Amino acid sequence: MFLRRRSWASVISLVILVSIILAACNKEVPTHAEGKATKLETGAVTVYKKKAISKKSKVYYKDRVAVLMYHDLVKGKTTKKALSAEVFKKQMELLKTSGFRVIGMKEYSDFVLKGGKVPDNAVLITFDDGYESFYKLAYPVLKEYGYPATAFLIVRSIDERIGVPKMTWDQMREMQKDGMTFYSHTYDSHAYADVNERGKSKPALTARKYLINKKRQETKEEARQRIIDDLKKAEERLKEELGNTDSILCFPYGAYNDTVMEALKSLDIQISFTIEKGVNSRSDAKGFRINAAKVGMDPETTIGQLKKIKAYTG
C-alpha cells in the first residue's frame, strides 16, 4: 500500500513538472526589430522587454536654414496682433517630433559668412519688436525644449518704455544665459514717415522724409546720414547693455533700398532679414523668413510648410 501511494505521488509530480515545462516553451518571448530579446534581471525572474525601434529622422532639406518669424504672443486665442502661446508651444513640439533642428544666430551667421555647417532641417526662430511676451510666454517654452531664439528690438522703445509693454535689459541679460540673442530692429525707425506735404507716407527707413520746417523733402544724402545715425545708435546701445560684438538688422516692415544697403555696408552690418518668404542658402546674407503666426493657421499646417521647403529653393 505504501509503495502504491509513493508511485501515485511520483506520477502526479511528473505530470506537474511536464506541464510547467510545456507552458514555458509555449510562452512567446518578445524580440526587437533584429529578432533579439532584451532581458532585464529582476531577482529570480528574467523579464524580456521589446526594444524601441529607432527611426532616423526624415531629411526635408540640407545645407539650408528656414527662419521662422513671430511678433507678439498672448494667452488664450490668437488675435490679429498676437499668436496664442498655446499654439506656439504646439509648434515647438512639432519641430522636435518632426525632426527639425533649431539653431542659434551664431550658427546661422557662421553658415552665411564663414561657410559653417548646419544640421539637416535647420530652423532659426526669430521674434520682432521686443515685446514683453517674449520673456513671459515664449522664453519658458524655449527653455523647456532647449531652443535658442533671437529677438529684434526697436531699441528706443526698450530705453524709453514706449507703447505696448516691452522687455527690459535685465530680462534680456537673464535670457542670454539660456542662448537667447538680441539684435537691431532699428533704434527709432520702425514707423511710417511723410514724404510730401500731402501726407503720403512710406516706411521711415526707406523714405526721404518731408521736412515740414523747411517745406521740402530730404536729400538723398540727408536720408542716408539719418539712417546711419539711427542704426549706429541701436548698435551702440546693444553693445553697452548686452555686450553684442556682431551687428545684425531686421528691416522694419521688411523694407529696404539701395540707400539702406549702403548704410549697412558703412556700419559693417553684414546680415539682415526681410519678411519675404523663402529659405536661406549660404548666399542669402539678406535673409528670407516664414511667417509662423498667421491667423487661422493650425500648428500642423505651419510646421508642415517646412516639410515642403524645396518649393522655395528652386
Question: What features would you describe in this structure?
Answer:
By secondary structure, this protein is α/β, with parallel strands linked by helices. It folds into two domains: 2-49, no CATH class; 65-313, TIM Barrel (Alpha-Beta Barrel). It is 38% helix and 19% strand. The chain contains ten helices and 17 strands. It has helices spanning 2-26, 85-97, 105-114, 133-145, 155-160, 169-176, 220-242, 258-266, 299-307, 310-313; strands at 38-42, 45-49, 65-70, 72-74, 82-84, 101-103, 122-129, 150-153, 181-184, 192-194, 201-203, 210-211, 216-217, 248-250, 271-273, 286-287, 290-291. Strands 3, 6, 7, 8, 9 and 17 form a six-stranded parallel β-sheet that branches. Helix 2 (85-97) packs parallel to helix 4, helix 2 runs parallel beside helix 9 (299-307) and helix 7 (220-242) packs across helix 8. Keywords: Coiled coil, Lipoprotein, Signal. Residues 121-314 form the NodB homology domain. GO terms for molecular function: hydrolase activity, acting on carbon-nitrogen (but not peptide) bonds. It is found in: Secreted. It comes from Cohnella phaseoli.
Topology (SSEs and partners):
Layout (H helix, E strand, L loop, with lengths): L1 H25 L11 E5 L2 E5 L15 E6 L1 E3 L7 E3 H13 L3 E3 L1 H10 L7 E8 L3 H13 L4 E4 L1 H6 L8 H8 L4 E4 L7 E3 L6 E3 L6 E2 L4 E2 L2 H23 L5 E3 L7 H9 L4 E3 L12 E2 L2 E2 L7 H9 L2 H4 L1
Parallel strand pairs: 3-7, 3-17, 4-5, 6-7, 7-8, 8-9, 14-15, 15-16
Antiparallel strand pairs: 1-2, 10-11, 12-13
Helix pairs in contact: 2-4, 2-9, 7-8
